[in-house]
Amino acid sequence: MANDRRTEHLDVTGYMGRQVHLGVTGSVAAFKALSLARRLLAAGAGVTVTLTPAACRFVTPLSFEALGASPVRADMFSPDSARFAHLEPAQTADCLAVVPATADFLARLSLGLADDLLACQALAFEGPVVVAPAMNPRLWRAAPTQEHFARLIARGVIGVLPDFGLMACGETGQGRLAREEAVFAAILRAITPQDLAGKRVLVSLGPTREYFDAARFWSNPSTGFMGACLAMAAWLRGAAVTVVSGPVSWWFPEEVPVVRVTSAAEMAEACLDCWPRTDIAAMTAAVADFSPEPTPAAASSRRTRPTAPPLWCCGRPATSWPPWGRPSSRGSA
After folding, report:
1. Which of 90, 92, 205, 281 has the most Cβ atoms closer than 10 angstroms to its Cβ?
2. Three-class SS of residue 296?
C-alpha cells in the first residue's frame, strides 16, 4: 500500500534562504498543516503563516509560532499585523501554499475575491501557488468546485489532488487532504530551480531476486535509497523521471512512473525499453551477476536437489546493447 512506502529520501536540507508562505483555511484537516510547517522548517526553508478566521477554530496561531514559523497572522486589521501584511508574501515569499484549501477558498481564489487577509495575499502573489484541497466528497464533486479548481490549474496554480478514504463525517470518497509527502514534494519543487526541465531521466534502484524455484531466491540487502534520492532530486529540479525498481518500496509523486521488476533480466528489459526516450540515466540498482538454473519441482527435496545449482550469467555482452549506443554515450551514471 502507498502508506507503507518509505519516505526517507524526502528528508532533504539545503533550502536555507527559501521562503514559503503557508495559508491555512477552515477544514478539519487544518491540524495537518502543523506537521507540514515543521517539515518545511527542517528542510531549511523559512515559513510564514496566515490563518483564516475559520482556521483559527481548528488550530491556533500560537501552535505555528511554537514550531518556529514567523510571522504568523490571522487578522488583516490586528494591531500586531504589519501595515501591509496583505502584500508581505508577494514581497518576500518564493511560494504560497494553501493547505488545506476549502471549497470556499478555491471559489474565492478562482474569482479573485479578496475579503480576508489570506485571500488578499493570494490575489497579490505573483510566484508559484500550491493548493491542496480538503473537503467532503460531495463538496469536491460539486460542479462549481470542479470548475473553480480547473480554472486555477489552467492559470498555472499547482494543485495537489485530494485522496480517497474515510472522512471525518463518516462518508467515504475523494476529499481527504493529500498525504503530507505529496504536498511537501509539490512545495519543494515550486521553490527548487528547474534546471532539468525538459530532460528525461531514468533511474534504476534496489536489488534483484534470482529464483531457484517458486519459494527460494538469492538477492542482496540493497535498499534503493541512493537511487530514490537521485530520482527525487531530478524530479524536484524539473525532470521527467522514470524509475525502474527492484523489490523495494519507495514513495514517489504520481508524476513519476515506477516500473516494478524482480529479476535482473526483467530490469534489463525495462531499462532498455525506456532507453531511447532517456537523456540522463542513473543505474544505481544492485543487479545480480548470476542467476541459478531453475530447479524442477520434482528435484527440490533435500534428498535430490544438488548442493551447487548450475548458474548462468545475468548480464549480456557489451555488443548486444542496442544500436543507439552504450549507456556511457548517453550520459549515464
Report:
1. 205
2. coil
Instruction: Indicate whether 204 pLDDT > 70.
Output: yes
Active-site residue flag, 229 = no
- What is the model's pLDDT at position 212? 83
- Say which CATH number the domain at 298 has: 3.40.50.10300
Give the Cα separation of 53 and 124 in Å (integer): 20
Domain range for 142 is: 7-190
Q: Contact at 8 Å (CB) between 124 and 91?
A: no
Residue among 184, 125, 185, 179 at smallest CA distance from 157: 125
Tens of pLDDT, residue by residue over 208-245, are: 999 888 888 889 999 999 999 999 999 999 999 999 99
Instruction: Quote the pTM value.
Output: 0.89
Phi, psi (degrees; rounded to nearest 5) at 107? -65, -45
Does residue 9 contact residue 229 with C-beta atoms inside 8 Å?
A: yes
> Which of 56, 169, 229, 274 is labelled catalytic?
169
Q: Which residue has the cell 524536484?
A: 236
Q: Euclidean distance between the first and final Cα of the chain, in Å? A: 30
Of 232, 223, 218, 138, nearest to 182 (Cα)?
Answer: 232
